[in-house]
Amino acid sequence: MDEPLVHGRAVRLTDRVRRITAPNAGVMTGAGTNTYLLGNEQVTVVDPGPAVPEHVDAILKACDGKLKWILVTHTHRDHSPAAKMLADATGARLMGNLLAEDDGYQDQSFTTDHQFQHEERFVTDEFSLRVLCTPGHVDNHLCYFVEDDGLLLTGDHIMEGSTVVIIPPHGDMYDYMQSLQLLLDYPLRALGPGHGHIIDSPVEEIKGIIQHRLQRESKVINVLSTMHQGALENLTPLVYDDVDTRLHPVARYSLWAHLLKLEREGRVVAEGDNWIFRT
User: Fold this and answer.
1) Which of 23, 62, 164, 165 is close enough to 7 for a disulfide, judged by CB 3.0 to 4.6 Å?
2) CATH domain 11-200 topology
């Protein structure tokens, strides 16, 4: 059973993995961004989180002078800005992939000493990570599989208790679905999300997300086939009529991503601001 998410305290998850939750709770971040600490003698931080001094201090305290590497799953502003602060304080090496073109949501302070390839392994004396390229939430997204524990650190690819927002053009629903399916090829025992508690039923969770996205896609098709055509602002309240209207501005991005996926598959076509169902 996972422990409560407590800001500023390192919670032991396995013999080689700890978690500190940043104090950036909100609608999109849940209880806050989870920072994972791997290793005990030489520490690797995964997703250092926002540039909040008290969070950075908590990480430094937990690392106790042993921080060697800083890895990020992606460069959104709630996941990577603390990397520079930690690197400046410790000389730790920065690792992770950059987005080729800024979409307005990226942490411009993050630089990397090494960009990962899919299936590349990162190995220390205490653990082995397999790096998985999982584009979808954003093109440069990575997941890190702690092979010794069967624990997948998912960043924003999978979140506990809510669905992930896909914001085009660097967020891609087609790629997201492919990346979810990819994870089923690995011997996962648990998921360590960027937001939320440990998920102990990884296969069921992943299959459930795939099914949820397919159901939403089916709703998009049903609405669009009835209307024949429509703009995003007209389609959103119909496709997301089961979602709090306060979240519709965010849901609109995921709807756009669904439509782009369907366009890629030849099932809808865009003409100006209108999306047209292809019969």
Assistant:
1) 23
2) Metallo-beta-lactamase; Chain A (3.60.15)
